[in-house]
Design a protein that fits this description.
It contains four helices and 23 strands. By secondary structure, the chain is mainly β. The chain has a domain at about 10-30 and about 70-290: Neuraminidase, CATH 2.120.10.30.
């Protein structure tokens, strides 16, 4: 396939680095045990990246196994409902050097699928590519297995693009039936990233809004907005207003039972992993990172029973914690581990 390379300004790329500032959340309590219900022992499998390869371990942190040796996995992973396939993002780089001296290096992405069956037969060099547009990343498999929700940079293969244009898309697990949810994407005044869907088909995502500065336009995380997948054309102003409920929050993840959304706040004050109802009227603190480390901005992941979360910290560790903020346990690291994803196939 022949493709062009993109050119993105340094100011835009820096804005995508998720450096946060602003008004802090008010002190947030932990969820009462009575609201959480019975919380059992964490079970199932957790996929994660180690040295940028794809690995799987038990929810206790035991029995780690390499699944796919790719060396540049980069982004959110997601399990198929069968518990035997993992969709992941693979990144690379391109360099643009234009005649006027403009240009620079930026990352490109595509989505692949790894197979546990291959790894169990000692073949860790097998995977399947399902996108080839250089802009697709951070997939989430639907509960029924029929669709994959993901972020796509629609300017990824345009050599003179001034900036990315991140939008929410869907496709089938073979990469077909591609659809952009925002129909006015060519005139979009904001970015949409990190999609996650409820069992009913509502999509939570991070909205990035443009901020004009002397050196150019930057895009800052406004917070999390929610729209039904079948009705994605709300005015940008209304989406931005929705984000004020959780300002500058990133990395949303919907629980399998549809009751909760988890998200990350990495600001200097009140940073941590939070959980809330989909209307954000109830918000609870789940986990504050240890001193001298932060939470990574990969999306956290719920267990199949929606009672536990797994997430990573910037020292290369993976943690689990129940939704009441108790039972926090480091199950790997410190080291190079990141981006954990909990399988929703309870017995796999």
């Amino acid at each position: 396939m022949k493709f062009q390379r993109s050119l993105f300004s340094p100011a835009v790329c820096m804005a995508a680095g998720l450096l946060f500032s602003g008004v802090a959340f008010a002190a947030t309590p932990k969820m009462p045990a009575a609201k959480a219900g019975t919380i059992g022992t964490p079970a199932g499998k957790i996929a994660f990246m180690r040295e940028r390869d794809i690995w799987v371990m038990d929810a206790t942190g035991t029995n780690p196994q390499m699944i796919t040796q790719v060396k540049n996995a980069d982004g959110r992973m997601t399990w198929a409902p069968d518990g035997r396939r993992i969709a992941f993002t693979w990144s690379g780089y391109v360099d643009a050097r234009l005649p006027g001296g403009e240009g620079g290096r930026h990352k490109v992405y595509d989505i692949f699928i790894a197979y546990l069956d291959s790894a169990e037969k000692k073949n860790t060099s097998w995977w399947r590519r399902i996108t080839s547009d250089l802009g697709s990343r951070d997939p989430e498999w639907s509960a029924d297995g029929s669709r994959i929700l993901f972020t796509k940079d629609l300017n990824a293969n345009i050599v003179n693009a001034a900036s990315p244009n991140y939008q929410i898309c869907t496709m089938d697990p073979d990469g077909g039936s591609f659809q952009i949810l925002r129909k006015d994407w060519q005139m979009s005044a904001g970015w949409m990233q990190a999609p996650t869907a409820s069992p009913k088909g509502d999509v939570a995502f991070v909205l990035f809004t443009p901020q004009r500065q002397d050196e150019g336009t930057t895009y800052n995380a406004a917070g999390i907005a929610i729209r039904p997948m079948t009705s994605f054309m709300a005015p940008m102003d209304s989406l931005a207003a929705m984000c004020k409920r959780v300002p500058q929050a990133v990395a949303p993840c919907w629980s399998p039972d549809g009751k909760w959304i988890a998200w990350i706040d990495n600001r200097l004050t009140d940073g941590g992993l939070y959980i809330g109802t989909p209307d954000f009227k109830e918000q609870y603190l789940v986990f504050s990172p240890p001193v001298s480390t932060n939470l990574t901005t990969y999306q956290p992941s719920f267990s199949a029973d929606s009672k536990w979360l797994t997430f990573g910290t910037t020292d290369g560790s993976i943690w689990i914690c129940d939704i009441t903020g108790n039972g926090a346990k480091r199950i790997s690291g410190p080291g190079s581990d990141m981006g954990p994803a909990w399988s929703k196939a309870a017995k796999k």
